[in-house]
Amino acid sequence: MANAATQVKAACDGNVAEANRTPMTKAEEERQARLAQALRDNLRRRKAQARGDDSPARQPGDGESSFDRRD
């Protein structure tokens, strides 16, 4: 019941996205963190490539990409 009250209050405050959001599970949080790290790595790689650097700014260990890692 408290969760419903929180949703109603958030919706009344104009924050509909917050009202409809369900808490993420640990697996979802880990996936979100992995994807965020992969995006940062990709951006660094693209910036280095645009500058003409031969070596990437950061390399994942042992030839695995950041998508392949399961922490």
**What is the overall number of helices?**
3
Distance between the termini: 36 Å
Shape: elongated
What summary fits the major beta sheet?
Answer: none
Amount of beta strand: under 5%
Count of strand segments:
0
- How confident is the prediction overall: mean pLDDT? 77
What do these coordinates show?
The chain is mainly alpha-helical. Helix content is 59%, strand content 0%. The chain contains three helices and no strands. The longest helix is centred in the middle third of the chain and has 26 residues, at 26-51. The mean pLDDT is 77.
Strands, helices and their partners?
Elements: H1 2-12, H2 16-20, H3 26-51
Which features does this protein show?
mainly alpha, single chain, 71 residues, 3 helices
Short description:
With 71 residues, the protein is mainly alpha-helical.
